[in-house]
Structure formats: C-alpha cells, structure tokens
Amino acid sequence: MKHNRWSTWAVLAAIILAVVLPAGCANPGVSSAGAGKKIPVILDTDICDDIDDTWALATLLQSPEFDIKLITTEVGDTAARTRVVAKMLTVAGGRTDIPIGAGINVGDMKKGHAQDEWVKDFDMSKYKGTIYPDGVQAMIDTIMKSPQKITLISIGPVPNIAAALQREPKIADKVRFIGMHGSIRKGYGGKGHPDKEYNVAAFAKEAQKVFTTDWPMTITPLDTCGIVTLQKGKYKKVLESRNPLALAVIENYRVWAKRNGMNPKQVDTGSTTLFDTVAVYLAMTSDLVEMEKLGIRVTDDGFTVIDDNAKKINCATKWKKLDAFEDFLVERLTK
Questions:
Q1: CB of 204 within 8 A of CB of 158?
Q2: Cα–chain-centroid distance for residue 328?
Q3: Is residue 28 part of a domain?
C-alpha cells in the first residue's frame, strides 16, 4: 500500500506540473527564478516627453512580477506629468494603491506636455490615490523604509535620483538601479556609432553622479533599446486589443502623435521606438539580451564611453532574441 500511495502522489504531481509549467512559459524570456516573490520597484519617469514611457508604464502595470511601491515624475512640469500617471493608474483596474510623487521642476519649464489632451477631463481633485508633492523625499522614504532592496527603474534623465542621493546617500545601500541610458557602440536607430543619448546628455552632471554611485547598476543603452518597435501583425494585436491599458496606450499615442505633427496613419501601422520598455524587462530578467560588464564613464558633454578605470556596469549590448522580446510586449499589453 505504501508503494501504491506514493505512486498515486507521483501521478498527481506529474499532472500538476503538466498544468502549471506551460502557464509559466507563457511569458517569453521571463526567468522562473524567484517565482512567487514580487520585486519591489520604484519607477522614475519623464512620461509625456516621448510616448515610450507610456508603453513602459503599461508594461510595468501588466507585469505581476512587480510590487510597485512608487512612481515619480520628473523634468519640467511634473504636476502635469503626474496627471497622466494618475489616470493610467485609474484605468488599470483601480491601481490607485500605488503612490505618485511629483519630482523636482527642472529643465524646460513650459506648462503642459504632448499628452495634455488625454487628461483634459480628468479631475485630479477626485483622484483616490496618494500624491506626494515632494517626489524626491517620497523616493528616499520608500527606499529607506523598505525591508528589501528596491529596484529603481529609471526611464528618463536623472535629476530626481541625483537629488535623492544628495539628500540621503544611504539610499545607495538599498537600491538596485536599472536604467534606459547611454549609447555604447551604436546610436539612435542602430547607427554604427554612439550618440549623446538624451536621458544622459540632458543632465550630464547628474548622470555622472548616478553612474559613479556605489550600487548595482544595469542599463539598456541605445545598442539594444534603440531598435525596439512593434510593427505589422504584432502591433495590430495591441492596436485592436480591448485591454484597458492597451486602449489607453493607443489613445495617448494618437494624442502625442498629433501634438508632434506626425502623420496620423503611422499610429495605425506601427509604434515609434519603445526604448523604455527594455528597462522594465531588465528589472525582471536579462534572458533575451547579451550582457557585458563594462567600465562606463559619462563625459561632460553627455556621452557614455567605455573606460576600464570607470565603475563597472551591466550593459545590455546586443539582442539574443529581439523577436521574443516583441512577443513579450504584445503578450503583456493584450492579456
């Protein structure tokens, strides 16, 4: 009887594994390591400058691997950017449990942004979530109070993060930094030489501080993130999806494209470059990219150059399976 009992359990276990494992494999390129443990993250974003931040935010919200502790807006009119984040959280099935912090107002101080039209009827006075007027302090407090190391996903320039380091250097001990930053061997659109990448060059001094801080650091430079788009059938799945966040992404894309003088037909045929989505992916796993540990130095004029004497940074320099990453984006945005 003992033998039969264990045989029965073995059969049941096999059935359970057969059912569970395929479901886990539905997310291309996402490692099963640490399954069941959510990654505590803060997202720091200049949402509304380029539309890729909106795609990245939707991907983050659609990824159950993450426990999103805070979203901070940065550069320029951060209050206006915060409205877009607030509406996105509302659209995302009531994710107003995620606090938002309005970052410091630096850089181009013109009022509003390219996605204003999407939030013109959104009443912030009725917003149910928490909004911190000092996003930098909210970032510091969230990091310092966390019992676990925080993954800080940076998808814009870094004045908020540099200011947080200045106020409280101890946050470096409790952070893993993941960023969409730099250009190592290839530039925008896959060109064969490096460019001054905006997220670094816009605030080069602040980037120098972040790139020399003693914390684990991983980046997707233009070498990988600069060639990511969704086209044809893959893009059509997102365009035609009824998922509320996918709908919000496309709505924002149309508004953003119109404000930037683009041909509206482009919104019906394909995405622009989705730089920031790669940083969200790297916060989970690096399975689909080739990683190099390189000394990276930020120059005064905003280039990121290889320097053996500089801090060693994990850099996603090539794709192993770009098609699989595109599939991952589609799956996350349409499920």
A1: no
A2: 14
A3: no
- CA 9, 11, 14, 20 torsion-angle sign: negative
- 205 domain-assigned: yes
Helix residue ranges per DSSP H, 188-274: 198-201, 204-211, 222-225, 232-239, 244-259
Would the CA dihedral through 204, 205, 210, 211 be positive or negative? positive
CATH number for position 167: 3.90.245.10
Does 4 have pLDDT greater than 50? no
- In degrees, rounded to 5, the angle at the alpha carbon of residue 78 between the alpha carbons of residues 262 and 118 is 45
In a domain, 279, yes or no: yes
Joined tokens for residue 57: 């935010």
- How are beta strands 150-154 and 289-298 bridged, if at all? unpaired
Residue 216 is assigned to a structural domain of this protein? yes
Q: Return the structure tokens found at 158.
A: 């870094």
Question: What are the structure tokens assigned to 83, written together?
Answer: 């409205």
Q: Classify 159 as helix, strand or coil.
A: helix
Q: Strand 312-319: give its sheet, edge to edge.
A: 131-132, 100-102, 66-73, 39-45, 150-154, 175-179, 217-219, 312-319, 289-298, 304-306
Q: Which domain holds residue 255?
A: 36-334
Instruction: Give the integer Cα–Cα distance in Å for 262 and 293.
Output: 38
Q: What is the pLDDT of residues 20-70, one digit of tens each?
A: 333 333 455 554 344 569 999 999 999 999 999 999 999 999 999 999 999
| Helices of type H across the chain | 2-24, 52-61, 78-91, 135-145, 159-167, 198-201, 204-211, 222-225, 232-239, 244-259, 277-282, 322-334
Q: In this structure, what token pair is assigned to residue 161?
A: 């993060």
Encode pLDDT of 315-334 as tens digits.
999 999 999 999 999 999 99
Domain total for the chain? Answer: 1
> For residue 113, what pLDDT is reported?
83
The pLDDT tens digits of the residues spanning 150-171 come to 999 999 999 999 999 999 999 9
Query: Would you call 36 exposed, middle or buried from its count of C-beta atoms within 10 A (0-12, 13-18, 19+)?
Result: exposed
